[in-house]
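User: Sorry, what's this?
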Amino acid sequence: MPKGFIITKWTEDKGLVVQIKYPESISVDLDDMMRIFYAHITGAGEAGNVFVRLEKARSNVSSHFTGMESDNPYMINLMLELGEYPEIYGEKILEEINQDIINYLSQIDQNPENAPDLVRDLVKYLKDSLFLLERLENLSKEQKLAQIYSGEKTRTILDILQERARSKRELQGVLEQKLGRLISNLDIVLDPFVKTDMIRQDWVEGSSDILLFLKSDFAIMRIPPEKIVELAKENKPDPKIAEKYLETARNFFKDYEPNEEDNLKIASIMINPDIYDYIVLFREKPYPLKKIPKGPGESFETISALMRRLEENGIITVLEDKTGMKWVFLLTDVIAEQFYPEYLIEKIRQDFVEGILKKDIAIKHLDILENAYSK
């Protein structure tokens, strides 16, 4: 479970200064903060992320730095428990949180007269982000598949394992070569694959390392929301708005073709628990805009922001009925669905014939796929 955030700023006259922390009770050791800072500036001091283990503070830290060339070099430190790694939350969510925090900090720097109100807003955002991260530890299976797709490391691992079985050592080497950087904690990165039962980890006689076999694959896409379409065909909530909804849905899917850019957009939406909860809610029926149920601690502004994001990304559409009341309809349902990777059977045969794959490994993978198919 994450402990909190510590945001520091580098200044020429004072050096590294703690700007904001949440919660207030979280302890700050400037020597530790300097260790993280030095980890960032070793080399060119460019913007980026580092992971640091702090023994004295008994914390792991996922830190994002805006870079020494930025107008105000900020360091955003997510403080974690020892033994906890940022990979469990997914790359995309942490990127979004860091970018949102940077946007708040930029507003504070540009509007010093409004700084107290903006700082208060930022602290609330930090509080909400910690709650969000806690919820990410309990994603549904569908969300974990979306998490695999949304992360560069996990998406690349999937590409590699779609080619053939790899040893852990080999997988790490190919992954680092493709991404151009070192990868630590491979087991943590593989966690969503294990929890969705996509891979089998096993030994083959004569092999010195554990092997990873892909046993299922998945597709992520938009589909028409079945229940909502059926309700509209029954003229609900009223004939005029039902007809308008069906026309809007037909026009959308007439031109829709899945592609990586849109799939990445879908995945980033699905892994956000707050947004995903509303997608699940809207799968059942349309809601009047003013009567959308609120989650714990959610304000009207929060819900409005979530609805805007869903509408901008073509997940919902807002339509008016004959009385002028605005209704929220699920325009496109978004799903991540597993399927049997039949394509691997021919790939295994071909790799064996060409001498790319050893006989024992080929047989092992085919046995795993046969068992997966029979289930």
Notes: Residues 115-135 form the longest helix (21 residues). The CA atoms of residues 206 and 360 lie 9 Å apart. The two ends are 35 Å apart (CA to CA). The chain has a mean pLDDT of 93.
